[in-house]
Design a protein that fits this description.
alpha+beta; 5 strands; disordered N terminus
């Protein structure tokens, strides 16, 4: 099926049971592929259902990881992949903390979900990230305001492997049609801006002993 095509994944994509829903996703995959900017569709666990070639290109240089590939689960990639900070600029403040905030909201809605519980256990295994999640995150949300944790409309830095883009910014656009919403899915597109020629490279997150990106306490 179109939405299962591409490079081999470390885990299978979530697939709806309804044949009608599967047919819709096949057609939506064609639409997604026509978008020139990186775009994905994911479920409430951030398991990726669809991704286009532009998304694969953006993250094509990251090393293999057993549980945190961007095309498998984008939340896990942001939090746990040691290469995340090489693509996602200002990794901690612009990506990790907003994603942790969305994860906390998902846990409130789907507290018994096994996939979310697994992510929570992995967060707990990193003392710094766990402290940021349990103690620093509420303080950060109060300090920056609720709008800072919203994805739609946010402008965040990233580093594109194509030198025509290079070190740039992207506008995150949440453009989810009702049919996808009814399936429990969200579409997110990273609208790239023209390259900005910074004098310094992106700040890299430190790595823990197990190779995961380390988040400092807020």
């Amino acid at each position: 099926m179109a939405y299962q095509a591409g490079r081999q994944r470390s885990q299978p994509r979530p697939v709806p049971e309804s044949l009608e829903a599967q047919a819709y996703l096949q057609d939506y995959a064609v639409l997604l592929e026509a978008v020139p900017f990186p775009s994905i569709v994911f479920d409430h666990r951030w398991d990726v259902v669809l991704s286009n070639a532009a998304f694969e290109t953006l993250f094509g240089g990251v090393a293999p990881h057993p549980t945190a590939m961007p095309g498998d689960n984008f939340l896990r990639f942001v939090l746990f992949h040691p290469d995340a900070s090489t693509v996602l600029g200002e990794h901690e403040s612009s990506w990790c903390l907003p994603m942790l905030a969305h994860f906390a909201a998902a846990v409130e809605r789907h507290g018994q979900d096994r996939g979310l519980q697994s992510i929570r256990r992995d967060i707990a295994q990193d003392p710094i990230m766990d402290a940021a999640y349990r103690h620093g995150l509420p303080h950060w949300i109060r300090a920056v305001g609720p709008d800072a944790v919203e994805h739609d409309g946010a402008v965040r830095p990233l580093v594109h492997p194509d030198p025509r883009w290079g070190s740039t910014d992207c506008r995150i656009v949440d453009d989810t049609p009702r049919t996808l919403q009814d399936m429990g899915y969200t579409r997110m597109t990273l609208v790239l801006r023209e390259a900005r020629h910074a004098t310094a490279g992106p700040r890299k997150a430190r790595k823990t002993r197990n190779g995961a990106a380390e988040l400092r306490a807020v």
